[in-house]
């Protein structure tokens, strides 16, 4: 096959794949999530669903349905980057370390190490949930879980308002 014909068919194939691939992405992408970028807190809504985040007036149901997301409370994803002016700071670390001491049986067994917890801090500075992203020994997991749940924070600040934020908190055992 001559080179010009071969190049033509390669380009035609790439064009067809681009068009069909674009249509497939258009059909299968989560387009029901649309971002309202006009508000500074970046609220999310689902405009094409029956139970959309805006109040729905239904003849048969008297309840108004609202999504928790549409009220301005946006929870970032676990690995999502959120730009903030001020990150949360731990307020009560010495109190938590005193309340949840290092167990004697772990000390006797010679188990020590470090852990890092990724903690979701809400807009009021309260602990919501966490995931351990680094753990040097599995026996430290319950101790780290208890300490992470008791931590209190200053809230993250973005453009003068408080926002939810994932913060990495390192732990060292024994303290």
Architecture overview:
With 175 residues, the protein is of the alpha+beta class. The protein has 3 domains: 1-30; 32-74, no CATH class; 93-173, Fusion Protein Consisting Of Minor Coat Protein, Glycine Rich Linker, Tola, And A His Tag, Chain: A, Domain 2 (2-Layer Sandwich), CATH 3.30.1150. Helices cover 27% and strands 22% of the residues. It has 4 helices and 7 strands. It has helices at 3-28, 93-99, 104-108, 141-150; strands spanning 34-36, 43-45, 113-121, 127-135, 156-158, 161-163, 165-173. The strands form 3 sheets. The protein has a 3-stranded antiparallel beta sheet with strand order 4-3-7, with helices on one face. Strands 1-2 form a two-stranded antiparallel sheet. A two-stranded antiparallel ribbon has the order 5-6. β3 and β4 form a beta hairpin. The longest helix has 26 residues, at 3-28. The N and C termini lie far apart (73 Å). Mean pLDDT is 78; it is low at 31-70.
Q: DSSP strand (E) fraction? A: 15-25%
Main sheet? 3 strands, antiparallel
Gyration radius over CA:
25 Å
Relative helix content = 25-40%
The number of domains is: 3
The CATH architecture of the largest domain comes to 2-Layer Sandwich
Number of helices: 4
CATH topology grouping of the largest domain: Fusion Protein Consisting Of Minor Coat Protein, Glycine Rich Linker, Tola, And A His Tag, Chain: A, Domain 2
Mean pLDDT: 78
- Given helix and strand content, the structural type is alpha+beta
Total beta strands: 7
Unreliable residue runs: 31-70
Written as H for each helix and E for each strand, in order along the chain, the element string is: HEEHHEEHEEE
Gap between N and C termini: 73 Å
Overall geometry: elongated
CATH class of the largest domain: Alpha Beta
Strand order of the largest sheet: 4-3-7
């Amino acid at each position: 096959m001559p080179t010009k014909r071969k190049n033509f068919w390669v380009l035609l194939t790439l064009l067809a794949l681009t068009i069909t691939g674009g249509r497939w992405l258009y059909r299968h992408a989560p387009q029901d999530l649309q971002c309202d970028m006009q508000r500074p807190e970046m609220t999310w809504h689902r405009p094409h669903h029956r139970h959309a985040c805006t109040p729905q007036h239904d003849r048969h149901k008297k309840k108004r349905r609202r999504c928790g997301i549409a009220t301005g409370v946006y929870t970032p994803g676990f690995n999502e980057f959120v730009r903030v002016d001020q990150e949360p700071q731990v307020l009560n670390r010495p109190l938590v370390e005193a309340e949840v001491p290092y167990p004697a049986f772990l000390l006797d067994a010679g188990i020590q190490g470090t852990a890092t917890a990724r903690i979701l801090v809400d807009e009021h500075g309260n602990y919501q949930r966490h995931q351990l992203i680094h753990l040097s020994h599995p026996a430290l997991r319950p101790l780290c879980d208890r300490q992470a749940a008791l931590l209190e924070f200053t809230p993250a600040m973005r453009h003068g308002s408080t926002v939810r934020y994932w913060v990495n908190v390192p732990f060292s055992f024994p303290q």
